[in-house]
Amino acid sequence: MQRVSIILPLYKSERYIRETIDSVLAQTHEDWELIVVDDGSPDDSGDIVRTYGDPRIALHTRKNTGPCRARNFGIAQATGDFIGFIDHDDIWLPQKLEKHLAHLARNPDVGVSYGPSEFIDADGAPLGLYQVPKLEDVDAREILCRNPVGNGSVPIIRRELMEAVKFQAERDGKPEWMYFDDDAARWEDVELWLRMATTTDWKFEGIPECLTLYRIVPDSIAGTPDTKQAAFEHGLQRVRRYAPDLIDRHGAAGRAYHLRFLARRLIEAGNGKGAVLYMQRALKAWPGILREDPRRTLMSLAGAYALRLLPRSLYTRLLDAAVAREGARQKRAVKS
After folding, report:
1. Which of 191, 118, 111, 200 is nearest to 153 (CA)?
2. Which of 10, 37, 151, 265 could bond to 45 as cystine, CB 3.0-4.6 Å?
């Protein structure tokens, strides 16, 4: 069977949901089911889904329990041998499913197929930037530090692997199957990838085609970086339960990379003071990040201090030039 079960949680999704569903309908691989989980959304998202007459689209309405449990519920309804996820504001290019399934067919030891993403803005316009992950020889340390899967709309996963890592927990007074760990909320995707990488023999491997458009919309991360970092630290403790050696050996490196990620988000939000602070924390957590990934670390340091110290007009000109160079470099690294 080549059926893909696609899980799509809804919450305040009415602005983008039609474009997202249309991108699933446009897939060249047509054996799929779209399991839409309305997680108590207060807007008209569910009504928009109901306008579609395609029998492959199923809408389930639940009380709000958060994205982890909504996805877990969707997985439990799935009938396919492969599982995909798409967030309500992202877009798949038409050959997304076809190319990932071909990749998995060629590589029976690969459990998670992923690839690069192109960034688009709130209105769908390309930003000229990409997520360009490592595609081969991915181990648990790579996932901990850099998360090559990138975002939740990218991976296509064998159902067999999802079932191998599930566990039961009590929720609302009854047992519930957990794939995404809601006790690792805000870091639940990386926790799941680490559970797969450390407790099974399945491989993570990417394809070079850029098949996912990842929408960058304003969010609260830049305003609450301490909350995001606290979620990361809690996630590390969840991983420690089954992979203590990984956290003992590489937890500091993972912490440094995560602090650098938050610094870059603060730069994007125009918070130079916060970005400098988080870059300082990253280097203190694990100075080896400067040796292991000098280009991105130095770029982040330069961006943070430039934003903090330079006049805004000069900083903006330098930023535009740097973004153009980086976008051109990234585009050369991906196939479209």
Report:
1. 118
2. 10
